Amino acid sequence: EGKIMESLSKSSRNVAKDVGCSQSAVSRIWTKYKQHGKVVKGKHTGRPWKTSKHQDRKLKAIRHEKRKFPTKQMRNKWAETGVNVYDQTVRNHLKRMGFTYRKKRTRLQFHSKKGRTQQDPHEQAFSDSGKKKTPSFL
């Protein structure tokens, strides 16, 4: 933008060639300059960020401190600094920073550690031991 503003006397085509951008970009910057007296960037649309850059740096520090923390634990640690967000927000921020994240794996309720024994796994798997059961409708 600075180089473009210095060369107001040249044609937009020559300026675009010198700077290395399109002719339309040069003319757009010139018209903004003529209208406002300076090149003003427009407002950003969309939802604003929930966290500040300082809070994002805190999350980055937490991530470096405990690399293998699940996102829920990271969220709790981040909440101690005053940031109240969901797990998904933590995941989104980590992804944007270029990190990977861990989700805690949930075990099914009916799954128990007691399973087949090491001595005879076949007996546990097939407990009816060859007896045929007759259906109740016969």
TrEMBL record:
Basic residues compositional bias, start-end: 106-116
Stretches the record annotates as Disordered: 37-58, 106-138
Highest taxon in the source lineage: Eukaryota
Biased composition range(s): Basic and acidic residues: 117-131
Annotated protein name in UniProt: Transposase Tc1-like domain-containing protein
